[in-house]
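Supplementary material to the annual report.
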Amino acid sequence: MGLLSLAIWVPILFGAVLLALGRDDQAGVVRWIALIGAVVSLLITVPLYTGFVVDSAAMQFVENMLWIERFNVRYHLGVDGISLWLIPLTAFITVVVVISAWEVITERVNQYMGAFLILSGLMIGVFSALDGMLFYVFFEATLIPMYLIIGIWGGPNKIYAAFKFFLYTLMGSLLLLIALIYLYTQSGGSFDLAVWYALPLSGKAQAFIFFAFLAAFAVKVPMWPVHTWLPDVHVEAPTGGSAVLAAIMLKLGAYGFLRFSLPIAPDAAHEYAGVMITLSLIAVVYVGLVAMVQQDMKKLVAYSSVAHMGFVTLGFFIFSDLGVSGGIVQMIAHGFVSAAMFLSIGVLYDRVHSREIASYGGVVNTMPKFAAFALLFSMANCGLPGTAGFVGEWMVILGAVKYNFWIGFAAASALIFGAAYTLWMFKRVYLGPVANHHVKDLVDINAREFLVMALLAIAVLYMGIYPKLFTDVMDTSVTQLLKQIAISKLPV
Amino acid sequence: MVTVPLVLLAIPSVVIGFMTVMPMLFGDFLKDAITVNGAAHPAMAGLAQVIHGPTELALHAFSTLPFWLALSGVVVAWYMYMINPAVPAAFKRVLQPLYTVLENKYYLDWFNENVLARGARALGTGFWKAGDQGLIEGGVVNASWKLVNLISKGVKLMQTGYLYHYALVMLAGLFLFLTYFVWLAK
Amino acid sequence: MLDQISLITAYPEMLLFGMACVIAIFDLGVKTPLRGATYGLTLLTLAVVAVLEALYASGGATYYGFGNMVVSDSMGNWLKCFATVAVMITLVYGRPYAAQRDMLRGGELFTLSLMSLLGMFVMISGNNFLVIYMGLELLTLSSYALVALRRDDVAATEAAIKYFVLGAMASGFLLYGMSMLYGATGSLDITQVFKAIASGHVQHQVLIFGLVFIACGLAFKLGVVPFHMWIPDVYQGAPTAITLMIGGAPKLAAFGMTMRLLVEGMLPLAIDWQQMLLVLSVGSLLLGNLAAIMQTNVKRMLAFSTISQMGFVLLGLMSGVVNGNTLHAANAYSSSMFYVITYVLTTLAAFGVLLLLSREGFESEEISDFAGLNQRSPLYAGIMAIAMFSLAGIPPLAGFYAKLSVLQALIATGNQAYLYLSVFAVMMSLIGAFYYLRVVKVMYFDAPITASNVVAGTDVRVVLCLNGALIVLLGLMPGGLMALCARSVLQMLGT
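Predicted assembly:
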């Protein structure tokens, strides 16, 4: 069985086994099995990186089998430079989330762990699918575990949030389905991406396909103006759910742009690039301003995620090496940083049960170790050089300035806003005198929480100090993609 | 306490400077590390023709106006604040507006705090309440499901429970189909 | 008339009829209240019939029997096989429910179920207007009696009356349409009718007149707007086991009848009946989904959802003939067939769980009765969730592939308007997703009202688990069933 298939099905298998292991009195066993499953899944993704040939832009670790003969749907998997790092990122975040939920989740632990493991496998499936229908099946299937995670272990308004998440995302995805079937019909009966890349399409058809894809991916990323589900969902979701949602599920949408929208409808992409850049800049500036006035920590980080993803889409649609690579690097960096931010807020929430900034003040006095980690992650969120947050943002801004000075200028303002809201939040929550008895009673992080924070801190610092590890693998694939989308596909 | 080390640092500084300034500026000391583009920046070449030794460089300072202005500044400050504070007090009385502007650092801090920061926060609040919550959430997202609920309530009422209503609807449907397909769509 | 071939085509029906009579008599001697022996004998009969039909269907040949009045082809036989399995599963799920409500007195449940299945068989394999009508009447009359089985339940009696009166009206429409076509074409035989219409010698208006009546009769049986109004009331009023009996397998029979009448008999008139189906399906999608949102009763909600699901089936049926040629016909009709089969499978699972909950001595019909099922019994909550997600069309469950097939058939026609129609259809299914999700929400997110465990007999538990597993399995490997549908429809169109 191919490596990618193992990476997908091993976590799903572990998850299914956990679901079958009933009661809550076996919670200890369940947790250990979940941890083993998550770590094994992570180890499986290591050979993907070590065995990856950097100079080739072709798909690697390819598996191709006939799945549904009737519609010529194939079980076609593969990775290239663009999708390579997203897979270990997914597995890594899953390990972190399993560890972070160790003592926190006490009800129906087996379902919680099972849902996350299955979700992990499905997301890896999305990143490695090279067949349109296979991609769609994995893409949609991720909705079910996430819906259950939000609704069962979520906050007070979890039902509204769960429904909003599911139906909002489903709406976009259904339009994606129509576009996929349309492409199937136009290509004479194939769902294979390679066939679609070469398929000539008229301007009107490309516009339809581009906007149908946009509906699905814009909601997922999320782009302004369809971003309003994210703050609500993040606030209500449990800590692990928020971490996975921000770190990986948002990337499903951005990845979709690179794998689908740009290569299949390049002319439409060029034509509507202005619209996309505008929406990205609005996300960066407008949402950055909105983030500044938030009183709820999770909502603040949620809006900050929207702004960071605005960078990603901006990078993609300026169609330059720096832009696209910067966008991909930003995706991975944001994965680490946002997971870290949400887990930090989770640590505070587990103790005080409040996400309001006003409930805190001077946490550094009682939780110095934790505050140190929180400071690192806040700095990474601002985009401080030396941390993961800087690399992608810098590349995108550089690419944007080369494209158009004023776009680069507007994008750079994101750094100012990012620093403003993150540092302000940090100051109000962590610095200063001890604000109330909640803070006074705080206990510093224990060994397990320290482990979670340390793992993420290592990732954040490593990526900030030596990003070459990440950017090396993407170069060839990004160049190939840009070459591909520079060629017009209008029928002659 | 800091004086002695400063003195001890100052003396060697002068000595070293005296010895190395000429080779460094006009000689080969930094020949590989720094190159001066003589054609674009002729200043150093011009300077080389005027200055011929470290003593000359050092003594040149005393003949320039900026040196005497700076020195006079020190003297005036010493006089105004150590000997006769009434003078600056008089200045303050007479030139009150100028004093205030300088005291408030040209109001740039005020600008940052009140215009930029407060403005950004106001803009942020405006975008959030009016844009996100008002327009997007209220106008599109929540309005759409509320609309669907409203329509659904109306549709639910169509199922009246009366058998003759159902039969009537069936007959009406049949009649409409007949009218359209047999008669109109000839 | 009674030659070898005819006997072969009718073996299953004869067996079924014979055993139905035997069981009716046999049951007189059974004394136990749970009617175990009758139940076992019935299941045995059905199993044998199902195997027989499967063998016939995989044989792949088409036989005409009884002077061309009966056809035994691959599509019909598979539909009959699946209908038999559906009735079997219905009896498994429904017997404990029926036993608790005193419906097993006299064993009529089994006899009438067998008779209704016989009616379905005749409907599906009829090649003659009167034979089809006879099958329809056998099915519906048995169904009326089944609905009214609980004589002292007011709701059930009311449902039975509504079903009877409206059903009689619909049968009247169908018969009138058939008589019109007979008058116009001079024959009751479907192949003869097809030839007569195709020859072009028959006056078009008369044909359309008859077609409209037939389409309205079919629409009632399928349960699409505006002939749908019986469905919510009858589904809600009938005892839950009977709701499953009339809402599960008969959908396969209705589909079979539609294929025989519209596709085999009146394919040249496709331009016209496709338009009718368009109107029927748009109305069903709209009304079914919108009305289901406000329902608090599970059976009523599932009834409205049935209306919208049948709307989807019609979408497939109306995409067969494009610009006068039948290239896409097999594709389109097999999509609808696949949709109906997966729909029946999912309905069985959903009602199975519902019947389990109703066992505890009270009628659990409200959605709120499902509250906290995940904490009481994760297995059954899981099966219900699988059924709900499948109905909503979420991958990787069987219902998604059904919707995919139908949408693909619709878009493959190349008609721009149909592209917008497909967007409309998915938007309606988005609305539909809401009420399916609501059931999942109640099961998983709400706290339980009663703390009691859900008790189930071994047979019910095994079959229900297999049912749920099959939905997931078909979601991972739908190719087999899809190919089966495609092959059988292709064979039917070929003859």
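The CA atoms of residues 148 and 164 of chain B lie 28 Å apart.
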